[in-house]
Formyltetrahydrofolate deformylase (Psychroserpens ponticola), 1128 residues
Amino acid sequence: MKKITIQIHCKDQSGIIASVTSFIANKSGNIVYIDQHVDREQNIFFMRLESEFNSFSIDTFKTEFITVLASKFKMKWRIYDAKDKPKMAIFVSKYDHCLYDILSRYNSGELHCEIPFIVSNHQDLEYIAQNFNIPFYHIPVSKSTKQDAENKQLDLLNSHNIDFIVLARYMQIVSRKLIDQFQNKIINIHHSFLPAFVGAKPYHSALKRGVKIIGATSHYITEELDAGPIIEQDVARVTHTHSIDDLITKGRDLEKIVLATAIKHHINRKVMVYNNKTIIFY
Amino acid sequence: MKKITIQIHCKDQSGIIASVTSFIANKSGNIVYIDQHVDREQNIFFMRLESEFNSFSIDTFKTEFITVLASKFKMKWRIYDAKDKPKMAIFVSKYDHCLYDILSRYNSGELHCEIPFIVSNHQDLEYIAQNFNIPFYHIPVSKSTKQDAENKQLDLLNSHNIDFIVLARYMQIVSRKLIDQFQNKIINIHHSFLPAFVGAKPYHSALKRGVKIIGATSHYITEELDAGPIIEQDVARVTHTHSIDDLITKGRDLEKIVLATAIKHHINRKVMVYNNKTIIFY
Amino acid sequence: MKKITIQIHCKDQSGIIASVTSFIANKSGNIVYIDQHVDREQNIFFMRLESEFNSFSIDTFKTEFITVLASKFKMKWRIYDAKDKPKMAIFVSKYDHCLYDILSRYNSGELHCEIPFIVSNHQDLEYIAQNFNIPFYHIPVSKSTKQDAENKQLDLLNSHNIDFIVLARYMQIVSRKLIDQFQNKIINIHHSFLPAFVGAKPYHSALKRGVKIIGATSHYITEELDAGPIIEQDVARVTHTHSIDDLITKGRDLEKIVLATAIKHHINRKVMVYNNKTIIFY
Amino acid sequence: MKKITIQIHCKDQSGIIASVTSFIANKSGNIVYIDQHVDREQNIFFMRLESEFNSFSIDTFKTEFITVLASKFKMKWRIYDAKDKPKMAIFVSKYDHCLYDILSRYNSGELHCEIPFIVSNHQDLEYIAQNFNIPFYHIPVSKSTKQDAENKQLDLLNSHNIDFIVLARYMQIVSRKLIDQFQNKIINIHHSFLPAFVGAKPYHSALKRGVKIIGATSHYITEELDAGPIIEQDVARVTHTHSIDDLITKGRDLEKIVLATAIKHHINRKVMVYNNKTIIFY
């Protein structure tokens, strides 16, 4: 039994759903999940579909899919083999809470991915990588070595065929070259409910403004700081009694859960991105 | 332009989605919403679909739907004309918060329904009905008049072609006859997160147990007390400082929102019921 | 039995709590609530205390309080008689959901205040005021009449000895004169989780940014737009399926609850304001 | 500088707060935190207080505290030296998520306690204990060895002067002897919002009942199963699309956060227990 996931988007038109589902039916596929969304403002149709087949060649399927459907409706599409595990690289600095959380989920089988390596600009968390038996590369970043460090990162990413990157509280600005190569494939966790408190030290800003709710936001990295497509957000209540340390501690729990949720959506091919916004098919 | 909503459930089989969507496409319908769910334990397929047509006869459509689809797949189905407003009767006793909330939503156009009348076993809330210009029937209920009261209620419901009933903190047990006639069509609000604290005085029980979270649950009435299919639940945090009055006050806000949400799901034909559980297609 | 509420703030020093509580004990008062907070950054001590007395003159109490405590510790303080109901004026424009919510809570005894009148720049909601038997004043506001309208508002507020003002979705900028006279006494509801989406049309901005959470914020009005001390915030989850109308509808429920909570905190003298932030003693 | 935490409860009487705070002031203590609560139904007064002293003997303090205050008001009390770290034993079986979470918090300095050892009836999680350099004792439990296992557990607990025990998804019923010795000192995590779904397999029961919200509850163990004083609860939304595996996965995040919160409250001496309920002074 072969299972695939299909993501489609195109201009909204009549008959797309019928055409796609009939195409699957003609290939004796059984649709086990279908969801669609129409963005009425922009007139764009989005669809996500999971289907099972008894005998199946993914190459033949793709060829016919292009001929019969994609060309006709001018679709942008992706077809994933459900057994393929995406390769995820983790970038960290010195904070360990997100890393521990990701690795313990990975260990317990919650994340359907491979983790070929962890990269850091510091050596502080190397022992955690060792505990979980994952290769750790220390690539220091300073003003003078920035260019060099980026090239080392890119070499590692390319030589391991990395599919997407998770910045698990990586305290460096990612280079334009990386962003270009991994468009909508670099997941960041920002410790505020964006668009509030963009940039550095959001918990300090939250304390200063006297908010009653703090948050965390996971988003894809784009060139504009903290302005990429939002994948997941969550919040927690705070009061006047919370000090900056309390906010940071409470925030850690938010960051862990929000980042893990975003990673899972990405791994399970639930996310589509259009016009700097995400469509997430649960 | 005609818009319809279709709800289907049947044994899970290959090709249902393709068959249904092709059927719609053949009638030149444009599917604007589709969602499906498969209950893997029970092997049941559920589907909800909204479709628009330029020219359309609902009777012809139904006839062909039965011939081409329903018989073949042994479907249970409902087809609703989107412009039809369901007729909702409201039952109340003495608490006014849910009634005020429903009527002010109704007034502001949030509820796509008609409210032919309000029934109560007390006269306390008659003035609210008058303020909102909705007929109010006072049907007292006592041990000796119970039978008689039920008949009066049924007469009212039938003579107004009521589609569904909302018990907006109606403090009486509803009769078996009513439940039989309005299966999965009587929406109740219970002031606890069911199945905790079934029956009377749930806030008192919550206080006694020392829970840190209280809740409210909206469900369809079945013969077993507080055991019908759950439509919506919500919760709020409480602490040791909350007295019984505080719980009741906090709970009122939960009850209002939870009941209103359940009513909207029902009105918008988003709810399907199977095996004492709801499938809610958002 | 007389009950009073005391709010105090001053520079943090040793012995304040012992001095205050002994002072109460010497007057045979029974403390039924005490809470305090120290802002360590600014070194300010805050305290809220409720106390009951058998025989009591509030004037004598205040005089001795000043002599014995306030002068010694250089306190800012307020002493409220618990039976005094603050007088609340409501300003509205055309949206009715917050008004309905406030008035139905008022009707059911949830708000310990008086509502001498409702003011609006439109006549649309006059009928609601009439239903609840509350005087309604229509004061139109246009560019040319702005000055005049403000004077009429101030006359009304002063002639009724209004203690605080609630802007229940009042769609006008409040004048500087009003803000000066009612410092930390004008409660607004803004339909975003501030500081995100300051200004007009926050739901439209939220939709455009693709946030996964929307919010509402109640705050005291200061001269800087949407930048006053935050009293209460709450949020709700949204997804890509929510249209602008869905956000507005979902937001209404947030606005109602958040504004009502802020009003209750204010009425129950639970709020202290310092340095553009609130301390709220639950 | 010496810092202590005092917990008091006694029959509610006039003058307690003044007497306690004056006592502290007389010893030149600076109160940095005070909170109190009166249970009006049972007429019991509760208080928690943190105070700092320049020079201080805890033994002298306790002696005078008893003479001057505790005897007079018939108080039950506890006085903790803030620098004392309570000793926490962790009991686990095979689930690793709570253990990883606790140990990574411990590692990052979030938990002010010592962890002398981890006990398990299985060897599966020994490697995690080793990664974190914490002694691990494998004490198998079977019907025939139950008595023996309990004695081994008690020996370990007593020889290490353990203050409290955390059952981090320990899948065994704890013996009466242990409960007697560690009253209100054994913290359990139950994977439902108690009192709903007491006992085994609560996620399965939740799925069967069709709830829209699942929860987790941390409570002190008493002899009655899942009926001890609740310390913390939290919930998460679910829908008809969630399978039993989804509930279990979602629940893991709840369990981790709820248990960690309860542990922190306990460690920070924020919890008092009376009549099977907790008072938690935040």
